[in-house]
Design goal:
By secondary structure, the chain is α/β, with parallel strands linked by helices. Helix content is 51%, strand content 7%. It starts with 7 loop residues before the first helix and ends with a helix. The chain binds zinc ion (ZN). Zinc ion binds next to helix 3.
């Protein structure tokens, strides 16, 4: 079971939502607050054999089946890249295609997967507790998959419940939004996120530096530490970019590098406006005369790169190009 499912702010939201008995939930709000974990906590509670008002017991055969990612009554609809990251098994056919390099793991929720889920919701449940469909991130559905889901949401066949999680609910079909009860993710209390990160094995000062670099989003911090981003690494990033040192990004995926550079750009823009930086300490930011217009253009280029970053043609080349672009921006005189 994911550690964040038991985090206090997730636990509070789990029991709040369970008390409301919706059959389809849409969890929305910024990423990194535990959307996926809350979605999984809800689905686990629905399927649990001994649920309490707090949620799933964590100990029954159903909870165990979810912990090992093989529950016959839970369908998980995610892009294959996300399933791989979160440890969910792909369908046999999909795994076979990817092993044989017929195609790359999909970044969208595939039509095949949606067809399987529609079929799943029409079957009788295996364990007598109904069924659950979890969709994450829901904005990765294309029009075809979204319409297939909509049909199932409109005429739920029997005892099936849905939980969708998204950081971009405005991009979903309005008809999907209107079929779901919406819940906006709550931020943890100030000390709560730090205390929880310390429980996950981070040292106090380290946890607080990382929480800052993640913009206060605790589940993003865990992802960062898993990726090997230490506070010292983070503190040295701006100056390394000013020096054009691409080795500083070497352990990152292009997507992670772009995320880090966007945060740097964001803080430089704040400094231009005379505001306090959000992700870095002021002293960590490099000297730079880059104007607001130059920084804004850089941000746009980073957003563009983000679209191709998940599986770039050549990750090493991409990191070098990102570094060189960052350096040129920082050294810009106007
Ligand atoms: Zn249970």
């Amino acid at each position: 079971m994911s550690a964040a499912m038991n985090a206090p702010w997730i636990a509070r939201q789990t029991s709040d939502l369970l008390a409301q008995r919706g059959h389809a939930w849409l969890l929305q709000g910024p990423s990194g607050l535990g959307q996926y974990e809350l979605a999984l906590a809800l689905a686990s509670a629905w399927l649990c054999e001994k649920p309490t008002v707090q949620g799933a017991c964590g100990d029954c055969p159903s909870c165990h089946a979810i912990a090992v990612r093989t529950h016959a009554d839970l369908a998980v609809l995610m892009p294959e890249t996300v399933m791989i990251d979160l440890g969910w098994p792909l369908s046999e056919k999909a795994q076979d295609d990817i092993d044989k390099k017929t195609r790359k793991p999909s970044k969208e929720i595939r039509v095949d997967a949606m067809r399987d889920a529609v079929e799943f919701s029409q079957r009788t449940d295996a364990r007598g507790r109904g069924k659950a469909v979890l969709v994450f991130p829901a904005e990765r559905m294309n029009t075809i998959t979204a319409n297939a889901l909509l049909k199932t949401l409109e005429e739920p066949p029997g005892d099936v419940r849905f939980v969708l999680a998204t950081e971009a609910s405005h991009t979903l079909l309005p008809t999907i939004r209107s079929r779901c009860l919406a819940h906006t993710m709550k931020w943890p209390e100030a000390d709560e996120a730090l205390a929880w990160l310390t429980e996950q094995g981070l040292q106090g000062p380290e946890a607080s530096a990382l929480l800052r670099s993640a913009g206060g989003r605790p589940t993003d911090v865990l992802r960062q530490t898993e990726a090997g981003l230490s506070p010292a690494w983070w503190a040295a990033l701006p100056k390394a970019m000013r020096q054009g040192d691409a080795r500083h990004l070497a352990d990152l995926s292009p997507a992670q590098a772009i995320d880090a550079l966007q945060k740097l750009c964001h803080d430089l823009l704040l400094r231009q406006l005379g505001a306090a930086p959000r992700f870095f300490e002021g002293a960590q930011l490099p000297d730079s005369k880059a104007s607001t217009a130059v920084l804004t253009d850089w941000f746009k280029r980073l957003m563009q790169s983000a679209r191709t970053a998940e599986h770039p043609f050549n990750a090493g080349l991409m990191l070098e190009a990102l570094t060189s672009d960052a350096q040129q921006t920082l050294l810009s005189k106007g």
